[in-house]
Predict the structure of Putative transporter.
Amino acid sequence: MNWLQDLLTNPDSIAHIVALYSFVIAAGVLLGKIKVFGISLGVTFVLFVGILAGHFGFTGNASILSFIQDFGLILFVFCIGLQVGPSFFSSFKKGGISMNLIAVGIVALNIAIALIMYYALQGRVEIPMMVGVLCGAVTNTPGLGAANEALSQLDYSGPEIAMGYACAYPLGVIGIILSMIVIRYICRVDMGKEAADIQRGEEANPHLKPFIVSLEVQNEALVGKNLSQVQKFLARDFVCSRIIQDGEIHIPNANTTLHVGDKMYIVCAEDDSEAIAAFIGPQVDMDWEDLKQQDKTMVSRRILVTQPNINGKTLGELHFSSMYGVNVTRVNRSGMDLFASRQLTLQVGDRVMVVGPQDAIERVAHLLGNQLKRLDHPNIVTIFVGILCGILFGSLPIAIPGMPTPVKLGLAGGPLIISILIGRFGYKVKLVTYTTMSANLMLREIGIVLFLASVGLKAGGNFVQTVVEGDGLLYVGIGFLITFIPLLVMGMVARWYYKLNYFTLMGLIAGSNTDPPALAYANQTAGNDAPAVGYSTVYPLAMFLRILTAQLLILLMAG
């Protein structure tokens, strides 16, 4: 039975370490699915199973645990960056600025209360442990990873800060949801009115999504003018994908000349449709599908962009109408239809709606790729080139006035920033950043469970002693104050000053703490998409700030 004893107890055995991680992760994920009062801890339960295993003496070689911890963290933050990159900069546009300001206020107050408690306790809780409590209170695991990585730069030899994180985390999840409930009663929120306001806002807000309208040319000033001239005069983007002239359907291009009585199939932004109709002519009822069936040469088809060399090119650069005799009416990206303006940049994974003759569409399909199997292959080169650049960037010393040593963004901050930039601008340097959601989620989940298991196994040896004999209950109390007070203060500011809808505010609160369980509660309460909108608007910046500030607090205060 020596082999079994070796498998269970030898910390230098690779088989022991793999078996230990497998057990901790599997048990943690399964237990994390258990809900108490509708709330579950998710994969974070892996940390607690790791702590339990470490407490009973199951551990591994310290160097191997550290490697797995760091590699898991890098995978997680890099995939997070790739996911939020495309929306990171757009979240600062009009409408999102005030919400992001509120999120920044929440992050700043979290840090302020942590520092107030640190000075009020006169150093009883060291800064590294206080940062661990802070990360647990705001339920941000990547921040804990960044803080741990920063401590490794300082040769820290104190207690594992994951113990503070583990003490504060459970009440952090509850505190976030509790703050939503308290704000609702303090601000006397009428749930029915909030839902009606969301509904009215959706009806009154014509987003830049494709809108289809059929028009008959009645403006005699347009006779003899071509489509290009009409677009320049109107100064509004629209696509005329089909036109009926003298009873026959044609695929128009920029040089197609208009005549009174022509019937046009136009795709435009909804808020431009009235101006276009007022200029060209009245709307008419047309059954274009029936006409398309009568004209067997005319077809419409969605084509999948899979050719890497198309990545980053605009629709205007591809000259679909002049070179191929087809028109692109809209582009579907990640489930959202986008208006096909000439300036729209194509990316691998886009689905392009094309209208034209069958043979021309086949040529366009060949140009764009249209091979689904290509998307099933992960872009490993982009991921590891990005990780390499992120590590190099994170290793650069940044001199800050007043700091005795230069600051480094480290293994968490460097890959995060580089992955955000690649996710947003990668196509400009011909990097294919498309990754299926399932592949991205798989890498993220593998990364975070490896990180959490490692942290738990390393912290488990002294955890019970810290909680029972040490300051465990103090960490819980500090964590609750860090969680609750900023959300209450900024929540009331959002309601009373910014007049933010309550359902959107619930999503903002969950997003500012990067907390999926709180978002699930908000979605269940609201019954609409408003919480998801608030969550996604502030999530990119909040995640970035949580990771960066945790690291900077360690480097500035403990350095």
